[in-house]
Structure of Pyruvate dehydrogenase E1 component subunit alpha:
Amino acid sequence: MFSVTLRSLGRQVHQQNKSLAPLFTYSKNGLNTEASFDTKPFKLHKLEEGPSTSVTLSRQDALKYYKDMQMIRRMETAAGNLYKEKIIRGFCHLYSGQEACCVGMRASMRSYDAVITAYRAHGWTYMMGVDPAGVLSELTGRSTGCQRGKGGSMHMYIKNFYGGNGIVGAQQPLGAGVALALKYQGTDGVCLTLYGDGAANQGQLYEAMNIAQLWKLPVIFICENNGYGMGTSVDRASASTNYYTRGDYVPGIWVDGMDVLAVREATRFAIDHCATGKGPMVMEVVTYRYSGHSMSDPGTSYRSRDEIQEVRQTRDPITGFRERLLSTSLATAEELKDIDQEVRQVIEDAVKRAKADKEIGLEELTADISCNPIDTRVRGVTAFDTLTHRRLGPAVNNH
Ligand SMILES: Cc1ncc(C[n+]2csc(CCOP(=O)(O)OP(=O)(O)O)c2C)c(N)n1
Ligand SMILES: [Mg+2]
């Protein structure tokens, strides 16, 4: 009886609001195990067909995406606080606002696909398998950090994740190189190569696209368009802000980067394209960063507080997703509150560890610089003062 009522309610809602499709598949507790949604239309460049805008979401996946997005949001808030307390030093670029991008992409990746991104890398590091304590301890320079505290904010790695790159535009040719390696090894693996709208104007992107198209490399060039490169808006920096078309001869797709499901579908489509030998693809995900460019930028001199507030209220990736889950009975408010509580606890524990754990000793400073060192002497403070290079463990991504 209850499920029949729900079903007809689902139909009514669907008729009133095209973003909600009929509900189906009920579990005992009256919650749905699956629901369908419509995404915003994708814009296509040099493509006859795009991904379907009608997407299905299982309850299990819904809870996972929600938790991952919340984990990244809270981890970044914690990183911001640790920075203000001067426990994190140096660079620190936060990803808050952009969570649906990495969570949606990761949902469509296969275990052997690779990722490379710029310096806004904490969320990706978590999504590729480092727990929040590994990320936060890396930020505070502790030996329990994912790079034993020697990489910091911009240089985190794990299997199939090639970092964390601080030079704007540097990672795009590297991503094409990773794609070449995947192809050379005979896998159908794809390299997701992310860059910002600011990096979209770097010449080396176009050199990388050229060779990727010629050699049909399995690389998705993904422009995370968050509206700004440092304090410069996209309109001031780019002669064309249609980043999905800027590969010219490379097919492109525009995606709402605040909708985790749209990102997931577009990524699945792009992976299929690249993995079947059709060559590269460009994907523009339109998103927003709430924080300043880095912790040293308050982020309010080149945009208004109202603008930030409006995005928070109308386009926030987590709030929007939460509403979808509740309105289609994929989850209850109580359940989501429990997840929030669990996430808060994980981050609190991670912060404690990031403050308490030890730093590496001086003898490790010159360890693990090269994978196969030819010369084991490393220059010290002066050219005459040499230190010894040592390998402490296997290199990440040394195939
Ligand atoms: C080659 C190079 N030029 C300039 C910089 C300084 N810089 C760091 S980030 C940045 C803006 C990049 O913006 P975008 O690509 O949109 O990435 P977002 O910060 O928005 O994620 C600039 C100019 C740099 N790191 N490297
Ligand atoms: Mg940007």
Observations:
- The domain at 23-356 is CATH 3.40.50.970 (Rossmann fold).
- The longest strand covers residues 32-38.
- The chain has two domains: 23-356, 366-399.
